[in-house]
Amino acid sequence: MGQNISPAMASVLLLNHAADVIARAQANGQQTPAELAYALESAQLLQSPETAKQLAKHDELRRQYAEAAATVADLVVERGERLKVENALRDRIAELEAAAPEGGED
């Protein structure tokens, strides 16, 4: 919920959201109290504000972790490509040194 709304308005918004969740669940054939409660839980409407805040923080941390893991994977691939180039250059230098006439530079 927004930061500048009154507690009464927040309650109204939550009730309207819960009513919408229930209406959609019923439209999808969910009619029993357990099915409707599950719909509310799935919409995270049965959690305390503290639990919802913790879950949101957890989701954000999970997103940041996935982003960091993807960056690391990209860096590993780049490093592997660089190593291939470095190894190819070392091999070519070794070939040129082996093919060079002995006796050093003139």
Describe the protein.
This protein has 106 residues and is mainly alpha-helical. It has helices spanning 7-27, 33-42, 49-99. The mean pLDDT is 89. It folds into two domains: 1-46; 49-100. The protein is built from three helices and no strands.
Q: How helical, in percent, are the residues?
A: over 70%
Beta fraction: under 5%
**What is the H/E string?**
HHH
- Tell the overall outline: rod-shaped
Radius of gyration from CA coordinates: 31 Å
Question: In summary, what is this structure?
Answer:
The protein is 77% helix and 0% strand. The protein is mainly alpha-helical and 106 residues long. Helix 1 crosses helix 2 (33-42).
Topology of this structure?
Elements: H1 7-27, H2 33-42, H3 49-99
Helix pairs in contact: 1-2
Defining key terms:
106 residues; mainly alpha; 2 domains; 3 helices
